[in-house]
Amino acid sequence: MTANKINESSAEVMMKVNDVAEYLRLSEAKVYRMANSGQLPALRLGKTWRFNKKILDDWIRRETRGGDGEMVSGQSQDIAL
What global pTM score does this model have? Predict the structure, then answer.
């Protein structure tokens, strides 16, 4: 393998705003607001936003767990969407 060739198994999946909106079932405007406010883990590249899917999935897991790392059961937990 050459140094210029990317190993596809180690490549990170990057998502655009419309992808994240569909994935989280939010409007694109809401995704922009959450990214701008720092509520959603995102990378700003010029005027565009990109979201690393693995980091986004980790964020979802953290936000849906109680403070002790256990899943919250029997109660709803707001994620500030």
Answer: 0.68
